[in-house]
Structure formats: C-alpha cells, structure tokens
C-alpha cells in the first residue's frame, strides 16, 4: 500500500482558491481579510520606512559594483552573452536577469536603482505587513543596518536574496506541504549571490529534516515524496554553481587568488570577526568610509561563543532550526578563507539567516525573546548611525565627475583612466567607453579578464604615452582620470615620457575611495 502524499502529510485539507475579493460562500477572501486585519500603526510604520528608503536612494550615488551590473547587461545583447559574461563576475544570474530586459528599453544607469528600489520596497513591506514579529521587533528590524541601508540603499543582488529568504521563511513556516514551491524558492535564492547560495543549502537541509520528522521513518515513502522537488532544487542550484564557476581567463588581481591564504590563521581570525560583526555591528561608520582605520576589529572573533549561546537560547524550543544559522556561518567563514576575503555586505548573510530563522520560529512560538531584541537593537543602532552619517555626504564622485565633463563640453572627449575598478564608474555614467591603462584596452564596463593582471603602477607614464597614440584623433581632447592629484614628480615623469598633463577639476569629497581628478593630456613639447 502506498503512503499518503506530501500534501496529506503536512496539511489536512486544501480549500478551493477563492476569488480575489470573495470566497465561494460569499465571505471576504483571505486577501481582503488580511488587508482589513492590517493595523493602521503597522501600515504607517511601513510607509514611513518606505519614504526613508526613497529619500536615501534618491541621494545615493552609485558605487562601482552597483553600476557594473548595468554595464554588463548593456554589453550582453543575448542571454548567451549575459551568462558568458557572468563567468567573469563570480555571481549567479538572477539579479542580472531582472536588469537585462530593462536594458532593452533604456540605457540610463539609474534603471538599476529603480529596479532595486522596487525590491527594497517589497522587502520593507514583507517585514512591516507580513512578518510574525512584534511591533517592537519590526521597528528594530526595519531600522537595522542591513534593512535600513546596506541591502536597500545600495543596489546589489543581496537585497533580492534577503527578500527571497523571507518569502521562503513564510512558506516554510505556514505552507511546508508546498514542496515544489519551496524547492523553487530555494533554487531562486541560490541564484542571487554566492552567500545566498550557501544559505539556501542550509535552508534545504533543515527543510529535509523537518519533512523527515513529519513523515516518520518510512524511508521509501519519504524518498518518493522528497526526491522530485529535491531534484528541482538541485537543478537550479547546479545552474547557479555553473554560472558562478569562474572562467579560466578570469582576473584575480583585485580579489587575490583562491586558496592562496587558506592556512593563514590571522586571516581566519579576521574573517570570523567579520561574520560575528554582521550580528554585532559595533562600528558601522567604518563599513564604507575610505578614511576609517579598519572595517573590522579582530577582537570581535572572541564574541563568537557569546553569539552561539544567544542563538541556542533564542531557539532552544526548536533546536532543529539552529541548522540554518550554524551551517550559514560555517559556509561563510569557509568562503572567506578559501576563496577571497569578504566584507560586511557578504557577512550579512548571517543576519539574513538569523532573521529568516526567527521568522520561522515566531510563527509557532510567539513569546518575546529579549536576546533576539538585543541583537536586533544592536543592528538598529548601527543602521540609524550610518544612515545619519552618510546622508549629507557623497558616496561616490563618479556621477559628479561625469556631469562636470558633460556640462563643460567634454562629453565627446576620449577618456583614459586608472585604476580600472574606479574610473570605469565615470565612463558608465557617461555611457561611453574608456581606455584603461590597466589592460591597455578600451571597454564599456569592467571586464575582469587576465589581460589586466600584468599591470603595475610604475607603468602608468609609459602606458599613458601609448594611450595618447592609440586614442588620438585630429582635434580630439583626451581626458585622463585618476583618483589622486598628480605630484610634481609624477608630472615630470609624465613629461619625460612625452605626456603633458593639465589639471581641470577635482572631485574629492566621497565617503568611499571613488574620488577623481580630471586632467587634460596631450603630447608634451619636444
């Protein structure tokens, strides 16, 4: 005799889907009932944070990794080109697949912020209106560093991963019988970024344990029910892994070679500290400031047992859920140590894992946890602090530099710049190519290939002289971009190589390292 289906195991019945406004028996639909159940206070809180997001993102000047996504999709006329180019980024494709069709209608880089703002608004709405948290927890979570700033204001793929993680948490808690839907959600999560890929694996293992616990020990029936949706997830996860798998021609100059410091204990301590600080964000003002002495404190690694004890205490009534944050932390630290040293935007996967696990737990256990409130409060203080700090300042000078060039008659000038990681931002705001000294080549976005690996700062005068020859046209102005003012010694060295440089403008008020000095360059008199 065959066993019951997965739906029968986890749910006693499935009512017919009601009309959007009315159920079959004439009563209000679940959507209308939910809308009527929303507290005016919760709605006001959600709208207030949505307004704060719009104000912040409208003042935010995109940084290199944000605008790089747009340059990549513009340089990918087909999906084959898109996925080929992604193998030089280390990221899977879901975020880029959202941007790619938009690029068919506009070339404006601000489209990135519009798409990300929509995702961020959904994230805020999910927390403010759908979450099982208390009002105080909602306030603290919406004020947290990652929700108030890092994953909403900065347009990257991490906000999309956060949103999918929360949608999965809701489904895992209330609709665990929807095996295929949950498998697809986990597969989509794996396709947002490498750290969400690790989180999806932790989610998947905990989900299997939950299904096994509910099913009992009838192994054959469990395998028959779980295997098909598990294969759906595996296909999506393998697709993410294939997209992230680096091209043999990829450049490691910026990030460092994988495994090169795998056995470095100092690096390991720093990476553990970073992961701890994603939950105990003790100095948020250092996260993006280029003038900060350090982005993390190695001493924070000593707080790992404290964080572990807090998690055990919070989830003590459902210790199975500890699988999620534990595996996520181990995976994140391993990626830090084996692949490349990361930063707070990557370590924030631990915060996502904590919030999603707490979401699942809260659906069945509504008691207040002061330990959870404490963790959320620490992150809220960090979020409010950095939002206040960054608001009056310029995040990147890329946009201002591009606008100055356009307004002062240099929109048609040839652009030359170094380093490529910084100066490409200006070119992308202008929507034009730039000759990069790092690779002695012209690109419209930063293509991380090995051709840039042989570059050394000492080669700038010689390569700049070559650039003058390569981009020279009769009557054409050549603009050179560099993130620091040229010293008298550098100017003399340039002249010795046949290049005369005249300073035109300086943009040096950025919070980050994206400051730009604009020079007109031309052949030096004999």
Task: Characterise the protein shown here.
The chain has 526 residues and is of the alpha/beta class. It folds into two domains: 38-390, no CATH class; 398-523, no CATH class. The chain is built from 23 helices and six strands. It has helices spanning 6-10, 30-37, 40-59, 64-74, 79-86, 94-102, 111-130, 135-142, 145-150, 158-174, 179-190, 194-215, 219-244, 265-277, 304-314, 323-338, 344-347, 349-364, 370-390, 398-407, 420-430, 460-471, 488-496, and strands spanning 414-417, 434-436, 441-443, 478-482, 499-507, 516-523. The protein has a six-stranded mixed β-sheet. The radius of gyration is 26 Å and the shape is elongated.
Walk across the major sheet and give the strand order: 3-2-1-4-6-5
Task: Output the structural class.
Answer: alpha/beta
The helix fraction, in percent, is 55-70%
Instruction: Note the main sheet.
Output: 6 strands, mixed
Could you name the ranges where pLDDT drops below 50 across 5 or more consecutive residues?
Answer: 1-24
Q: Please tally the helical runs, counting DSSP H or I stretches of 4 or more residues.
A: 23
Overall 3D form? elongated
Could you tell me how far the N terminus lies from the C terminus, measured between alpha carbons in angstroms? 95 Å
- Total number of strands: 6
Beta content: 5-15%
Radius of gyration over all CA atoms, rounded: 26 Å
Number of domains: 2
User: Would you list the SSEs in sequence order as H and E?
Assistant: HHHHHHHHHHHHHHHHHHHHEHEEHEHEE
Mean pLDDT across all amino acids:
91
Question: Keywords, please?
Answer:
526 residues, alpha/beta, 2 domains, six-stranded mixed beta sheet, 6 strands, elongated, disordered N terminus
